[in-house]
Amino acid sequence: MEINETTILDDRGFIKINGDEARSFLQNIVTNDIEKITDNLTLFSSIFTPQGKYLYEFFILKFEDGYLLECEKKVTPEIIKIFNFYKLRTKVNLIDVSPKYTSIIISLEKFKEITKTQHVGTQLYLLKKVQLYLVKMKEFMLIQGTKILEQKLLQKLKIVKI
What mean pLDDT do residues 105-114 have? Predict the structure, then answer.
């Protein structure tokens, strides 16, 4: 991978989880400690059956007023169905936002270059050492913590799609 190349992961899905009880809801059903998630730290977690059999794995990150789960796109509806089963009267919303978002991969060298840049800051998500998020909306934008970088900045950073 060249330093300015990116790879788009179209097979990744996203579930937005928010609401008054989102944190406690997730804490009670996923395998990792939700308290560890910050604006700068994502979490790898999974969900099991009540008998302890593995079902699905995903990344969880702090997002807006709740959390964003990144998982395989094809299992997104199944994860939402399982979460809805456990939801009962919990004040939590589960929204498939896969059409709005996609994952991209950039090189570790480019990540280091971006985080050294004064006007960008250092709150970029580092998943598997190379992964960031790209929002598909009116313009392409890169999620930085809970802040968003505009397309003009992507051009300044010389990130190109392959």
Answer: 69
Rounded to the nearest 10 degrees, the angle between the axes of helix 22-29 and helix 76-87 is 100
Determine the pLDDT at residue 157: 54
Amino acid 133 reads: Y
CA neighbor of 9 nearest in space, from 130, 108, 121, 155 = 130
What pTM does this model have? 0.71
Third-level CATH fold of 12-96: Alpha-Beta Plaits (3.30.70)
Q: Please report, for residues 33, 47, 125, 162, the alpha-carbon distance to residue 130 in angstroms, rounded to integers and kept in the order given.
A: 23, 24, 9, 16
What is the C-alpha separation between 65 and 68, in angstroms, rounded?
Answer: 10
Residue 32 has pLDDT above 80, yes or no: yes
Domain boundaries, the chain: 5-9+100-161, 12-96
Question: Kindly report the CA angle at 100 between 97 and 105, in degrees rounded to 5?
Answer: 105
Beta-strand pair 54-63/43-48 = antiparallel
Which pLDDT score is estimated for 13? 92
